[in-house]
Amino acid sequence: MEEEVSFDALFIYLETHPLVGILLVALAVMFIASLIRMVVRLAVVFALVLGIGLYWTHSEAVSDLDVRTELLKRKAAEYGKGALEVGKVLLKKGAKELKKQIEESQ
């Protein structure tokens, strides 16, 4: 049958052998420090990868935005020229109508 080791027996053993307790604590501290260093290294690697990705996508977005801005300017110029032509025609028609009304009123 298996014997269950109680925490009381473990504490009594560590009280009678303090050097083992100190070594276990030192081993636990070294393990935790190693784990923290590994997590920090992983965080630095992830930060570098995300930073490079952000730089790359930002430069792509800026160049795409420049292209879209240029296309929008060209379309606005085309629509503006069309509106100018329509405005000229409407002004001529309005001037003719106004002249007709003036002639009719006289």
Question: How would you characterize this protein structure?
Answer:
With 106 residues, this protein is mainly alpha-helical. It has helices spanning 7-16, 18-105. The longest helix has 88 residues, at 18-105. It is rod-shaped. The N and C termini lie far apart (128 Å).
Could you provide a short overview of the structure?
The chain is mainly α and 106 residues long. 92% of the residues lie in helices and 0% in strands.
Question: Which features would summarize this protein structure in a list?
Answer:
about 110 residues, mainly alpha
Shape verdict: rod-shaped
Classify the beta-strand content into a percent band. under 5%
Which structural class should the secondary elements be placed in? mainly alpha
The helix tally amounts to: 2
| Helix residue percentage | over 70%
Task: Work out the number of β strands.
Answer: 0
Order of helices and strands: HH
| Terminal-residue CA separation | 128 Å
Mean pLDDT: 89
Low-confidence stretches: none
Instruction: Describe the sheet with the most strands.
Output: none
Radius of gyration: 42 Å
